[in-house]
Amino acid sequence: MAGSVLEIKDLHVSIEDKEILKGVNLTIKSGEFHAVMGPNGTGKSTLASAIMGHPKYEVTSGSITLDGEDVLEMEVDERARAGLFLAMQYPSEISGVTNSDFLRSSINARREEGDEIPLMKFIKEMDEAMDFLEMDKNMAQRYLNEGFSGGEKKRNEILQLLMMKAEIGILDEIDSGLDIDALKVVAKGINRLRDENFGCLIITHYQRLLNYIEPDFVHVMMQGRVVKSGGSELSKRLEAEGYDWIKQELNIEDETINA
Ligand SMILES: Nc1ncnc2c1ncn2[C@@H]1O[C@H](COP(=O)(O)OP(=O)(O)OP(=O)(O)O)[C@@H](O)[C@H]1O
Ligand SMILES: [Mg+2]
C-alpha cells in the first residue's frame, strides 16, 4: 500500500474542562521520523493519547485525519486497525492475558475475519522478533507487562510495534528507563521499520535516543502547542543549551499549559 498521512490540524484538547492542547498542528507522512520534545507538562503525552482516542481526553476543536479519514470519528480499536500504534509512556499491566495472546489478538484485529494469522506463522514471527530484540522467550508467556521491569516494558512495546505492522507509530518516551544496551536495541527495532510505508512520532527528552534514530524533523512543544520545528540540529541544540533560548526567542515566560 502507498504511504499514509496523519494530519493534525489546530487540535484543542481538554481534560475535565481544562484545556491542555491549544492548537497543535503536525503532519506525519510515512517514510518520515518526527521527534517531539519539550519541557515536562507541556502536552506531549496528551497529544499521543488524543491521537489514539483515550476517552478522558476531549477534543474540543480541530481535526485528526489519516489519509483523509476522520480519526476522531473512530473508536480506539478502529484507530489501531487503521494503522495507528501507540507505545504509552506508562504501559498498562494486564493480568490474566499473556503477552503472546495479546499480541496475536492484536494482530488478528488488524486482519479480515477468516484471515487470522496461522498459529505457527505467528510463533515463528514472534520468535524472530524476540531474538532481534534480544528478549527472553519466557516473556511471551508472562501476563502482559505484569511485573515487567521498566526497560522490559519498553522493549515489549517495540515487540508489539514490530509485529503489528502499523503505518504510523507514536512512541511516548520509549527510551525512558532503558539501560545503555537496551537503548540501542530499542533504536534498532525502530530503525528496522524505517521505510516508505512507516512513519513515526517519537516523543523524547533526550538526544541520546536521537543519536541512534536520526529524526527528519524535530518539534518543540510548549504551552500545549508546537512552538518550533526544525531538523536534527534542533534537538542537538536543545541538548546543549536547554529550552531557555526558545522561550526568549518566542517571548514565552512560562512554558506550561497553565500559562
Ligand atoms: N488525566 C489527567 N488529569 C488531569 N490532568 C492531566 C491529565 N493528563 C494530563 N494532565 C495535565 O496536562 C498537562 C500536560 O500533561 P502531559 O502528560 O501531556 O505532559 P507531557 O508533555 O507529556 O509531560 P512529560 O514530559 O512530563 O511526560 C499536565 O499539566 C498534566 O498534569
Ligand atoms: Mg509525557
Briefly summarize what is shown.
This protein is an alpha/beta fold and 259 residues long.
Molecular structure report:
Keywords: ATP-binding, Nucleotide-binding. Helix 5 (about 150-165) runs parallel beside helix 6. The termini are far apart. This protein has one domain (about 5-250): 3-Layer(aba) Sandwich (Rossmann fold), CATH 3.40.50. The chain is α/β, with parallel strands linked by helices and about 260 residues long. The mean pLDDT is about 95. Helices cover about 35% and strands about 30% of the residues. The structure holds adenosine-5'-triphosphate and magnesium ion (MG). Magnesium ion (MG) binds near residues 44, 45, 89 and 172.
Which CATH class applies here? Answer: Alpha Beta
| Model regions low in confidence, pLDDT < 50 over at least 5 residues | none
Tell me the number of strands.
Answer: 12
Q: From the structure provided, what is the oligomeric state, counting identical versus distinct chains?
A: single chain
Salient structural properties:
259 residues; Rossmann fold; globular
SSE layout:
Blueprint: E1 5-15, E2 18-29, E3 33-37, H1 44-52, E4 57-66, E5 69-70, H2 76-82, E6 84-87, E7 94-98, H3 99-109, H4 119-132, E8 143-144, H5 150-164, E9 168-172, H6 180-192, E10 199-203, H7 207-210, E11 217-222, E12 225-230, H8 232-241, H9 244-250
Parallel strand pairs: 3-10, 3-11, 6-9, 9-10
Antiparallel strand pairs: 1-2, 1-4, 4-5, 7-8, 11-12
Helix pairs in contact: 5-6
The protein binds adenosine-5'-triphosphate and magnesium ion.
Keywords: ATP-binding, Nucleotide-binding
Domain ABC transporter: 6-248
Pfam families: ABC_tran
